[in-house]
Protein 1
Amino acid sequence: MTNVLFAGTEENWETYKTLIPEALKARGVSATFGRDIAPEMVDYIVYSPLGPVQDFTPFTRLKAVLSLWAGVERVVGNNTLKAPLCRMVDSGLKKGMAEWVAGHCLRYHLGMDAHITNPAHEWRSGMAPPLAEDRSIGILGLGELGQASAEALNCLGFNVNGWSRSLKSIEGIACFSGSEGLSTLLGRSEILVLLLPQTADTTHILNAQTLAKMPKGASILNPGRGPLIDDEALLASLNARHIAHATLDVFAKEPLPQDHPYWAHPSVTVTPHIASETRPKSAAEVVAENVRRGESAEPFLFEVDQGQGY
Ligand SMILES: NC(=O)c1ccc[n+]([C@@H]2O[C@H](COP(=O)([O-])OP(=O)(O)OC[C@H]3O[C@@H](n4cnc5c(N)ncnc54)[C@H](OP(=O)(O)O)[C@@H]3O)[C@@H](O)[C@H]2O)c1
């Protein structure tokens, strides 16, 4: 018998307690699914970093840990984890991120704020925005979410440039890698979107030096992870009016502390880590599919390269 332990939060349990068994059944996988399975009997753990399992040592026959979260920075360095780790990528998460990125890029591109907030009722004519084809957007990270966002922006007509560790070839997107590629991409990014995972290599990738490479008046969207940005350097760049505006969804400390300068800064929009979330129905399908694959000795979906950290 295959045993799948649910190690998410109480709230997660209410969401998934019927969805995952249904998705397993639909694939013909016969498995026990629950929260009270003796560790030495567990084959798969459905995992949240906010759930009860932090030490994987007692799980002696573990075949895989199936994360409900897309970002795995809180578990990937766990020395007690010896089994494969799969992160969550579901269709809803990708669609949601592409919509959030497209929406906030359009806000900047169209200069919407100038009309939404106009207390003096000024008739500011002659302010038609350029066409999307005359606007360059850079995306750091061309993985599942970066590519979905790049494709959405491309469909809107923007000039889209993307950067990743391995060089990609994606129709309609100018692709870059390496440090020279990063400099080139930054230099042409009127809007920059951060969709990198948080690893040792990506921490503070946006710092005083890299911010200085961006065009004056550029804007930044960070739906990736807070530590991708050196906050002091960004605040300095915003105060010097080199970077015009930043919309930040993720932060080094969450919830963002009430006294953090981002809250009151006129050139910063804070959103509370809501850019996109795992959609339970499609996420349950991914979990069940990975159990099926594990039981059929097929490669897992979205397995993390634990050496690379993502
Ligand atoms: N705000 C939210 O609501 C929310 C929701 C979900 C996820 N997220 C965040 O979004 C991140 C991205 O998710 P994803 O599913 O797109 O991840 P992914 O599929 O693993 O893609 C990561 C991308 O980053 C690139 N990359 C990693 N390290 C790099 C480095 N050192 N230099 C250059 N490129 C590097 C990878 O390059 P290769 O292609 O060469 O491997 C890949 O293109 C997650 O890690 C998470 O932090 C946020």
Protein 2
Amino acid sequence: MRVAVIGQGYVGLTISMGAVRADHHVVGIDLSEKLVRDLSSGKSHIEGISDSDISGALGSGRYRPSADYGSLGESELIVIAVPTPLDGGGKPDLEILESAAKAVGKSLKNRVLIVNESTSHPGTLRNLIRPLIEAASPLDHMYAISPERVDPGNEKFGTRNTPRIVGGLTDEARDRAIEFYRSFCDEVVSASLAEVAEAAKLLENTFRFINIGLVNEFTQIMNEMGIPADEVIAAARTKPYGFMPFHPNVGIGGHCIPVDPIYLQAKAKELGLESRYIALSEEINDEMPSYVVDRLISLYGDLKGKKVQVFGVSYKADVADTRETPASAVLNILKSKGADVSWHDPLVKSWNGEECSPVDKGADLGLVLVAHKKLDLSGFTAPVFTINPNPKFLNWRPLLSVR
Ligand SMILES: NC(=O)c1ccc[n+]([C@@H]2O[C@H](COP(=O)([O-])OP(=O)(O)OC[C@H]3O[C@@H](n4cnc5c(N)ncnc54)[C@H](O)[C@@H]3O)[C@@H](O)[C@H]2O)c1
């Protein structure tokens, strides 16, 4: 098929490569001209897609990055994969999705299938995307939804072996979308309504959000009781059914887990409903940076004037993505305690207007927020406090599980 993928970020580029591998012809459209230049020269910007994947796709003649919506041209299927963030006030912000839908509508020449992969609340395809495209294009297009489940950095589950949910505004749209995804995914699950697929995505990420809140609270209780939380979690996970392990952390980051539950919460609010689990988990997770710094002070002592180096500022291990990272809150709190703070991350060159510092062997202590495989602390002899205990660090001390 001739496919256009709008947005060449984590989701759009992943889907573009999957489609190219399945012999589809893909135009990858992105407003960032720099990104389009990098992709055109065979450079990947995300984990899980290598430079050689991009060069191979370019070399096959079936992948063309472009910053021009005019390149939608003769496409038969359009996948939309653009950011759906929160605004400055912490509310869902669909402006980018709206502008992408309008631009798609203006550029369409034939009747096409439009599939949304961007995460949003149920009803977005029917009540926002379709009307915007219909207002710009008189043709009777087909509309489907397939929420993306990509887990950047996950070496076990990728596009092929992660089942996909597909729903459509008509049976024809859904069945055509199923046919497309079956060409590069082992399992495609059909949903009776587009809204079922949209809501399933929000349920999946809200489930994680709430369980992380639960384990963060549970860990604080264990710490007070002098019981090693990590061992409790490992013991509980030996139950073969009805339990799934989650691990305490410094807070939630990334483009999905902290954001998607808020889309559900906002919708519930519109309906006059409460979403108490979401509100409570948000509160617990937001408090974790303070809790982590308090633990650090209780284990190490006063931080005033101490040189503290923070390791791993992205939102999770082995990815460079710093969106919504709780590291910013940790750095601010450390500074407010009088610490002299620097940060080092082998995957993040610059962040928050600062360049990554080299590992500071003269620091008084290290704080590992995210333990990337590439993090090399050899020669760093000061005490290292870590969220996730890791024997590869010299002098490491667990912060969130008593010993
Ligand atoms: N990152 C993940 O792990 C993940 C997983 C599942 C679902 N999602 C969802 O997928 C969607 C996309 O997320 P992402 O992580 O790929 O975002 P991203 O920021 O990595 O990529 C989005 C890309 O879209 C481009 N863009 C912005 N506005 C555009 C426009 N009007 N037209 C064309 N391109 C435009 C940006 O330049 C950027 O390159 C979001 O709704 C997100 O919630 C993300």
